[in-house]
UniProtKB/TrEMBL annotation:
Domain annotation Disease resistance protein winged helix: ranges: 184-254
InterPro entries reported for this sequence: Apaf_helical (IPR042197), Disease_R_plants (IPR044974), LRR_dom_sf (IPR032675), LRR_R13L4/SHOC2-like (IPR055414), NB-ARC (IPR002182), P-loop_NTPase (IPR027417), WH-like_DNA-bd_sf (IPR036388), WHD_DRP (IPR058922)
Domain Disease resistance R13L4/SHOC-2-like LRR residues, every copy: 299-652
GO biological process: defense response to bacterium; innate immune response-activating signaling pathway; plant-type hypersensitive response
Lineage: Eukaryota, Viridiplantae, Streptophyta, Embryophyta, Tracheophyta
Domain NB-ARC: 4-97
Origin: domain of life: Eukaryota
Presence of the UniProt keyword Repeat in the record: yes
Name of the molecule in the record: NB-ARC domain-containing protein
Any one GO MF annotation of this record: ADP binding
Length: 654
């Protein structure tokens, strides 16, 4: 564009020249792979002339914050979706055959081609990289199968490493260990975000940040990695929060290679004799192995993804530096597992313990657990917590699959963020009152609550100003010795006496037990997003307090939680509700939606009900209706017709 005879001597001359040329012309700028907001600011200030002539600027970037910075509105941001199988195949074959026509003989390779496409999961970078590798191989099934089986080592080429290194070295220092840590999890493993956050904390990856809890900081790290497209969201909750994530197979291969190179991990079952085990920090066991005589003194974390526990725990004294013990994926409790539990007190640096959430792993923790003064997370299945647990001053997450009898002194655990489940009836009598001392508590689950506990629990919960999630299961009213009489005679307003002034920032509540109606204070919870009810025995006027909640997104009516024949959602009510479940309401005959109700509802699920459904056409944003095989919708033909005529054409799943 710049001619030889133009007076261009300096960078400023070039900038002035370009600006002048663009002033009177429509232009198209394509800026590929922009990495920083600062670079955009320079480009925008220097070159982009606003001349109102229909000019266009297209920016590609791997980073969500850069995309947001470059755009005026969110509508201008177009997230790139994975390629379809069809387009993945086209790109792969174009790369292999260098744009030439695909020969007829390729049909013999169709099955292995499909396996390769599945491995790439629609990621263009992966497709191009593997296509480039295949282009250098003889075109026959045997060679392609070989490459597919050793894909990890093949990806360790300089070009691919450079791509990973570019993303890796662009990360701020605090995210680098967090990303490499993902190499611990197996291929295609769905990683629970809470597990990942708690493990990062235990490893010391999470720095302090004023005004934020360590959990919030770690979650911020997670979203940074997701926004950079280095982690893939897997399950997203109704409120938009990511519940689980995973790592693309290709990215995982590269992370594993880098972690092994830096002596961070050893995968028992995949890389025997490749790395001296005494030099690594994280041990991953994918199949049971005898490890007697192995030097394990430097290991900081053990993650087992096999059916049984390795003999590694036969000598606990070898694991003095162990911080993270994750046995949550075991399928059977062996002698080695029980031995490890009995000797937990010897792992004095442990910060994270996770055992399977299954009744067959129900265990009695040893008194020596009180020696684990650095423990932050205890996730296990137990019925009774030992007295020593009250000494764990740094414990932040106590999670049990079963209802737990807690000892006196639980109020000493001032840093607790999560406490589930406390069996109130079986716990020490002072535990109910001590719950009010846990001022940092965000999630609380209690069970087996009787009338004698109502007042004390009410007082305790009212003091928990940080509480976001409250679950109360097995509410007993003690009107009769028999549960059937509870249902008949329970007072409609008793829950108001349980808690008259709840924490105002509650976002989720779940109640299991006879209520008759919901307490009036529920209508004051402006942040409430999720409500789940079991055995509540509500009548028509019992759900009035839910109708006006400004942020209610999810509502579950489960097993006898509603007793009327007709459940009607009235016009203009439930302004934000997106997800509705109607489960096992034995009296229900008609589910009715009035015009103007549920303007945001997207998902409706009916299970174990024999009701009719009317008013589907009045749900403007409905995307999916699921009718469980156990349900018997009386007017199913009419419902199908309503769905076909609906502007969104919602899916009907059985």
């Amino acid at each position: 564009m710049i001619k030889k005879d133009d007076e261009i001597k300096t960078d400023k001359d070039r900038i002035d020249y370009v600006e002048k040329k663009l002033q009177d012309n429509a232009y198209l700028f394509v800026i590929d792979d922009l990495w920083t907001t600062q670079a955009w600011d320079i480009i925008e200030k220097t070159f982009l002339v606003k001349n109102e002539k229909g000019s266009c600027v297209i920016v590609t970037t791997r980073k969500a914050d850069v995309a947001t910075h470059c755009s005026w509105t969110f509508k201008e941001i177009c997230p790139v979706e994975p390629l379809s199988d069809k387009h993945s195949r086209e790109l792969l074959l174009r790369k292999i055959y260098k744009g030439n026509e695909v020969p007829d003989t390729h049909r013999d390779l169709d099955d292995v081609t499909e396996k390769i496409i599945k491995k790439c999961e629609g990621l263009p970078l992966a497709i191009v990289t593997i296509g480039g590798l295949l282009a250098t191989k003889p075109i026959n099934k045997e060679e392609w199968e070989k490459l597919l089986n050793r894909l990890g080592s093949e990806l360790e080429t300089e070009a691919t490493k450079q791509i990973l290194d570019l993303s890796y070295y662009d990360l701020p220092y605090y995210l680098k260990p967090c990303l490499l840590y993902l190499s611990i999890f197996p291929e295609d493993f769905e990683i629970k975000c809470t597990k990942l956050v708690h493990r990062w904390m235990a490893e010391g990856f999470v720095r302090e940040k004023r005004g934020m809890t360590p959990e919030e900081v770690a979650e911020e790290y997670l979203y940074e990695l997701i926004n950079r497209n280095l982690i893939l969201p897997s399950v997203v909750g109704i409120n938009g929060r990511i519940k689980s994530c995973r790592v693309h197979d290709i990215m995982r291969e590269l992370l594993v290679a880098k972690s092994i190179q830096e002596n961070l991990i050893f995968i028992m079952g995949e890389q025997e004799n490749l790395t001296p085990i005494n030099s690594i920090r994280h041990l991953i066991i994918t199949r049971s192995n005898e490890m007697t005589g192995t030097n394990l003194h430097g290991i900081r974390s053990i993650s087992i993804f096999s059916a049984d526990v390795s003999s590694i725990f036969s000598s606990p004294s070898k694991l003095k530096l162990l911080k993270v013990l994750d046995l949550s994926n075991l399928t059977k409790p062996s002698g080695y597992f029980k031995h490890a539990v009995r000797h937990l007190g010897q792992f004095e640096h442990l910060k994270y313990i996770s055992f399977p959430r299954k009744h067959e792993f129900d265990l009695d923790l040893p008194k020596s657990i009180g020696k684990l003064r650095d423990l932050q997370t205890l996730d296990a299945c137990m019925r009774t917590a030992p007295n020593g647990i009250t000494k764990l001053q740094r414990l932040r997450h106590f999670i049990s699959y079963d209802y737990v009898a807690m000892p006196e002194g639980i109020g000493n655990l001032k840093g607790l963020q999560v406490l589930k489940w406390v069996d109130i009836e079986r716990s020490h009598p002072r535990v109910v009152k001590e719950l009010g001392q846990l001022q940092q508590l965000r999630k609380l689950g209690v069970a087996n609550l009787r009338r004698k506990h109502y007042k004390k629990l009410s007082d305790s919960i009212s003091q928990l100003s940080s509480l976001r999630s409250l679950v109360i299961r097995k509410l007993h009213n003690e009107i009769s010795r028999f549960e059937s009489e509870y249902y008949q005679e329970a007072p409609a307003d008793f829950l108001d006496s349980v808690m008259s002034s709840p924490p105002e920032h509650l976002r989720s509540i779940e109640f299991q037990g006879v209520l008759g109606k919901l307490p009036s204070w529920v209508s004051s919870l402006s942040y409430l997003a999720k409500v789940t009810l079991w055995d509540a025995r509500l009548e028509d006027d019992g759900i009035v307090v839910l109708q006006e909640l400004p942020n209610l997104l999810l509502l579950r009516f489960c097993t006898s939680s509603y007793v009327e024949a007709n459940l009607t959602f009235r016009s203009t009510k439930f302004p934000k509700l997106k997800d509705l479940l109607v489960y096992n309401l034995e009296n229900l005959e008609e589910l009715l939606f009035e015009e103007g109700t549920l303007p945001e509802l997207q998902t409706l699920k009916i299970s174990y009900c024999n009701s009719g459904i009317s008013g589907i056409q009045y749900l403007p944003k409905l995307k999916k209706l699921t009718v469980d095989s156990s349900a018997n919708v009386a007017n199913l033909d009419e419902v199908q017709k309503q769905l076909e005529e609906h502007p969104n054409h919602p899916a009907l799943d059985f």
